């Protein structure tokens, strides 16, 4: 599938786990890590604006919370996805980029493969990221991340 020209993403849908969420821009924190969407909206995900837009050549990144103090959040069920499931990203240009999932991986923070997750790609790819890998109650933090790897299979015009 050939990539399409850049256009900001506005919504992400993952039908298999009932995700239908708006996207907001994300940047980097002062320590160089990816920002998280605000926790006040559990059904909000974000797109890393420093990388490619979903559907363009390269590795686009979408991130969201697994949960908040109020309960499950947008990517709570991300780990239940399987190879071959789809991720749809609505774009500001009226197109929907459709991706198929290649793999779902869980990494500890110490073993997070930044180059594999964020590195360049010759084709249009997508990473969907949330916290996971166990929870440390004493530190009130997750021990790692769940990462969904996907590639573009089609682009359609929304009606």
Keywords:
globular, 3% helix, 8-stranded mixed β-barrel, 1 helix, two-stranded antiparallel ribbon, 10 strands, 159 residues, mainly beta, single chain
The total of beta strands comes to 10
**Strand-pairing-aware structural class:** mainly beta
Spatial strand sequence of the major β-sheet: 1-2-3-4-9-10-8-7
Residue runs with pLDDT of under 50 for 5 or more positions: none
Major sheet details = 8 strands, mixed, barrel
Label the overall shape.
globular
Strand content: over 45%
- Average pLDDT works out at 94
Helical amount among residues, as a percent range?
under 10%
How is the secondary structure organized here?
Blueprint: E1 9-14, E2 19-26, E3 45-48, E4 58-64, E5 67-68, E6 71-72, E7 86-91, E8 95-108, H1 114-118, E9 124-136, E10 141-157
Parallel strand pairs: 2-3, 4-9
Antiparallel strand pairs: 1-2, 1-7, 3-4, 5-6, 7-8, 8-10, 9-10
Structure report:
The chain has 159 residues and is mainly beta. Helix content is 3%, strand content 50%. It is built from one helix and ten strands. It has one helix at 114-118, and strands at residues 9-14, 19-26, 45-48, 58-64, 67-68, 71-72, 86-91, 95-108, 124-136, 141-157. An eight-stranded mixed β-barrel has the order 1-2-3-4-9-10-8-7. Strands 5-6 form a two-stranded antiparallel sheet. Strand 9 and strand 10 form a beta hairpin. The longest helix has 5 residues, at 114-118. The model has no long low-confidence stretch (mean pLDDT 94).
């Amino acid at each position: 599938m050939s990539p399409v020209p850049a256009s900001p993403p506005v919504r992400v849908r993952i039908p298999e786990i009932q995700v239908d969420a708006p996207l907001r821009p994300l940047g980097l924190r002062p320590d160089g890590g990816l920002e998280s969407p605000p926790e006040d909206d559990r059904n909000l995900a974000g797109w890393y604006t420093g990388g490619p837009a979903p559907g363009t050549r390269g590795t686009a990144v979408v991130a969201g919370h697994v949960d908040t103090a109020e309960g499950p959040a947008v990517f709570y069920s991300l780990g239940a996805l399987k190879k071959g499931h789809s991720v749809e990203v609505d774009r500001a240009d009226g197109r929907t980029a459709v991706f198929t999932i290649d793999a779902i991986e869980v990494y500890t923070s110490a073993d997070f493969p930044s180059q594999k997750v964020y590195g360049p790609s010759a084709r249009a790819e997508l990473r969907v990221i949330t916290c996971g890998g166990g929870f440390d109650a004493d530190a009130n933090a997750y021990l790692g991340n769940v990462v969904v790897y996907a590639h573009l299979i089609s682009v359609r015009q929304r009606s």
